[in-house]
Design a protein that fits this description.
The structure holds 2 protein chains of 2 kinds.
Chain A: E1 4-13, E2 16-26, E3 31-35, H1 42-50, E4 57-62, E5 65-66, E6 77-80, H2 92-102, H3 107-121, H4 136-148, E7 154-158, H5 166-183, E8 187-191, H6 194-200, E9 203-208, E10 211-216, H7 218-223, H8 228-233, E11 240-249, E12 252-257, E13 260-263, H9 264-267, E14 277-282, E15 287-290, E16 298-307, E17 312-317, E18 323-328, E19 339-344, E20 350-352
Parallel strand pairs in A: 3-8, 3-9, 6-7, 7-8
Antiparallel strand pairs in A: 1-2, 1-4, 4-5, 9-10, 11-12, 11-14, 12-13, 14-20, 15-19, 16-17, 16-19, 17-18
Helix pairs in contact in A: 2-3, 2-4, 3-4
Chain B: E1 3-12, E2 20-28, E3 32-36, H1 43-51, E4 58-63, E5 66-67, E6 78-81, H2 93-103, H3 108-122, H4 137-149, E7 155-159, H5 167-184, E8 187-192, H6 195-201, E9 204-209, E10 212-217, H7 219-224, H8 229-234, E11 241-251, E12 254-258, E13 263-266, E14 274-283, E15 289-291, E16 298-309, E17 312-319, E18 322-329, E19 339-343, E20 350-353
Parallel strand pairs in B: 3-8, 3-9, 6-7, 7-8
Antiparallel strand pairs in B: 1-2, 1-4, 4-5, 9-10, 11-12, 11-14, 12-13, 14-20, 15-19, 16-17, 16-19, 17-18
The chains are: A alpha+beta, B alpha+beta.
């Protein structure tokens, strides 16, 4: 079993509202990420589940049991930390064995279980080393092994990849996901890195300012961000957000983009919001370079142009320094300030409300 | 175009394991050269030798036809931006940027005009009245960059000038740098450890490692025709995949790969006929396909893990002892531990000697 349920949970530090009545559910065997910038309340949420912070208001359940007043030790959770939190005076073996020793597991069983988990995390060669002798990556693997060695309903992972160098981070990211899937673990993972959340999760919970912004699969979060915060937080480079003014002339709808008047029919858009002003959101990958003069094209000038190996990243000045970014394949050279026409893939165009910043639906 | 700056067989000896060894390259007038390498490669030492901060042990530096090896820094008319900013803490941002012009006794009006123009170009114009202690690390770095660019020099030397900006700003500045270079039209030598900066900015990339030059070439060339596994894995994210084989042969364009547990062949290769032991096959994550069944030009593996990233999926595939990464569209579905086959593109694969790391195509007979 491994289920978590939060029902209108608050975390208050004096007058400061760190978590503002959030509700969520994590299902058995799921890998769920809490994603957001620092100060968004993701770590407070994790620590309330772990029992390291009191739940100020609301109710939290693990496997159907109310945990508000349970000690951390009775919640059936295991946690791994950003800063590893290893015992410096114990070697790798003893650090990992510690949770089993506390539970008076027989020595022979401890030995076989430590060796097994170390094997799957690739740290078998370090068993007799002390933490200070290890690289950051090996220390974090030890911290993870110590969390994973004992059965728990939920594994709580707090920014466990943050301190690692890029190569280590990519490797360990893949390994954590593999182990979680193979062992069918339920995991709640806190991260500020949108790429980690996309790569590892079954579902992502995006938080900002103590509130949940969106809950969805990585595809849903990437394809249809629920508001401008999510749209700009997920994706690198971020989604282009373009200010739009709508005009109707002779019963035809036009969009005014950076002073250019565009026919919505020629843009291929099936629907536009019934508002005078709104934002249009489009990912850099969904903007295409087209030949000059094409119908439905937006014209501009090449502002920057970078070939990056497998793709080129280009920013286009639509006038008045309104830049949009587009990603293209690695072939034709463009010159700076060269005139260019771009078109948007209509099915990938999103609209956002200017006041509420929410996604607008048909 | 003529060679404007020539570095001829420069050696700088310091303590053992430091310094640079027999470094030679040249820059045409108005070109943008990026020296790329990991820390300890000798990049900053090379730049310091060009600036005249360090004396060379041997070799020569020729600028515009004249040797400058024995000239002092201020006689060389080069301008350098430092990775650690080196700002005057008691001077405002304006005065920091103005300092090279004050030293040249320019009049106040000209100074003010030049400082404002360059500050706007690098995006620091809103902070001119502040002091270094009042601005962020990224703003300090841009101040250092403006101070370097404000004066008229023959060559600009830039040591990791955007390394300390946060990721978003760094991406933005990287793009803007090309505009700055175009605007000024001057010869620039730029040091970086980030392959993206080299690919995006350079006319010519100089790859260095452990004090020596490993490869010199235009960006597309160092990316797609790496001289050895060092260059192949320094450029690219993820780096180039390498799969080790015990033995390979090439005959009439057909490459036979013999590994511990399997054999494969790739037809239509550009390689000359050869036989070799201990060879790694190299390919980039976006140049191959994942397919369910063995077929022409495939090698077998199994799914170690898969990770959806934006509108693509990165599969990590185990091939015997090796792990490789393959990027696919989102609609490709394989499960953990499922058997898959990687379909290679004969035009974009490479062969490297396991021991030396050398690309077999560059091997001298």
């Amino acid at each position: 079993m491994g289920q978590v349920k939060l029902d209108k949970v608050w975390k208050l530090y004096g007058n400061f509202e760190a978590v503002k009545g959030i509700s969520l559910e994590i299902h058995d065997g799921e890998f769920v990420s809490l994603l957001g910038p620092s100060g968004c309340g993701k770590t407070s949420t994790l620590r309330m589940v772990a029992g390291l912070e009191e739940i100020s208001r609301g109710e939290a359940y693990i496997d159907g049991v109310l945990i508000n007043n349970l000690d951390p030790g009775n919640r059936h959770v295991a946690m791994a930390y950003e800063s590893y939190a290893l015992y410096p005076h114990l070697n790798v073996f003893e650090n990992i064995a510690y949770p089993l020793r506390v539970r008076k597991v027989p020595n022979a069983e401890i030995k076989s279980r430590v060796e097994e988990i170390c094997d799957s995390l690739g740290i078998s060669q370090y068993l007799t080393d002390f933490p200070s002798a290890l690289s950051g990556g090996a220390q974090q693997r030890t911290g993870l092994a110590r969390a994973l060695i004992r059965p728990a309903s939920v594994y709580l992972l707090d920014e466990v990849l943050s301190h690692l160098d890029a190569t280590e981070r990519t490797m360990l990211r893949a390994e954590i996901r593999r182990i979680q899937k193979l062992m069918d673990l339920t995991a709640l993972f806190v991260t500020h890195d949108q790429l980690e959340a996309l790569a590892m999760s079954d579902r992502i919970i995006v938080m900002n300012d103590g509130e949940i912004q969106q809950i969805g699969t990585p595809e849903e979060i990437y394809d249809t961000p629920a508001n401008l915060f999510v749209a700009e937080f997920v994706g690198e480079p971020p989604m282009n957000i373009i200010r739009i003014q709508r005009k109707t002339e002779d019963r035809k709808n036009y969009l005014i983009v950076a002073g250019q008047k565009l026919d919505t029919a020629k843009l291929g858009l099936q629907w536009i919001p019934d508002l005078d002003n709104f934002f249009l959101g489009i990912r850099p990958k969904n903007i295409n370079r087209s030949n000059n003069g094409i119908d439905g094209g937006i014209s501009g000038q090449v502002h920057t142009y970078e070939m990056l190996g497998d793709h080129t990243l280009c920013s286009i000045d639509l006038g008045n320094n309104d830049l949009v970014f587009l990603i293209d394949t690695f072939d034709t050279q463009l010159d700076l300030d060269q005139p260019i026409t771009i078109s948007l893939t209509p099915e990938n165009v999103l609209f956002y409300d200017m006041n509420s910043s929410e996604l607008l639906h048909r | 175009m003529s060679e404007y700056l020539e570095i001829r067989n420069i050696t700088k000896e310091y303590t053992p394991g430091k310094g640079i060894n027999d470094v030679s390259f040249s820059c045409t007038e108005g070109s943008f050269t990026v020296i790329l390498g990991p820390s300890g490669a000798g990049k900053t030492t090379t730049l310091s030798v060009l600036a005249g901060f360090l004396q060379t042990t041997s070799g020569d530096i020729v600028m515009n036809g004249h040797s400058i090896r024995n000239l002092k820094t201020r006689e060389r008319n080069v301008s350098m931006a430092f990775e650690d900013y080196a700002l005057y803490p008691t001077h405002s941002i304006f005065e920091n940027i103005a300092s090279p012009l004050r030293a040249r006794k320019m009049d106040n009006e000209t100074i003010s005009k030049k400082v404002k123009a360059i500050a706007q170009l690098v995006g620091i114009d809103e902070h001119l009245e502040k002091f270094p202690s009042q601005v962020s690390g990224g703003q300090k770095q841009r101040t250092g960059l403006a101070r370097c660019l404000v004066r008229d020099a023959d060559v600009y030397l830039l040591d990791e000038p955007i390394a300390h900006l946060d990721a978003k700003l760094r991406h933005r500045m990287r793009g803007e740098f090309k505009r700055i270079h175009k605007e000024l039209g001057k010869t620039m030598v730029y040091v970086s450890h980030d392959y993206r900066e080299a690919l995006a900015l350079a006319d010519m990339v100089i790859v260095m490692n452990k004090g020596s030059i490993v490869q010199i070439g235009p960006p597309e060339e160092v990316f797609s025709q790496p001289k050895n596994t060092f260059v192949a894995t320094l450029l690219g994210d993820p780096p180039m995949n390498l799969v080790q084989f015990d033995h390979i042969t090439v005959k009439n364009g057909t490459l036979s790969l013999i590994g511990k547990d399997f054999e494969s062949s790739v037809k239509g290769c550009r390689f000359p006929d050869m036989k070799a032991d201990g060879v790694s096959l190299g390919f980039r994550d976006f140049t191959v396909e994942l397919v369910a069944k063995a077929g022409k030009n495939t090698i077998p593996g199994s799914v170690y893990v898969f990770e959806p990233i934006e509108d693509q999926i990165i599969f990590t595939i185990s091939i015997a002892e090796n792990r490789v990464r393959v990027r696919t569209p989102r609609n490709i579905k394989f499960d953990l531990n499922e058997e898959v086959h990687i379909k290679l593109n004969p035009e974009t694969i490479h062969l490297f000697d396991n021991r030396s790391g050398d690309n077999l195509e560059y091997r001298e007979e």
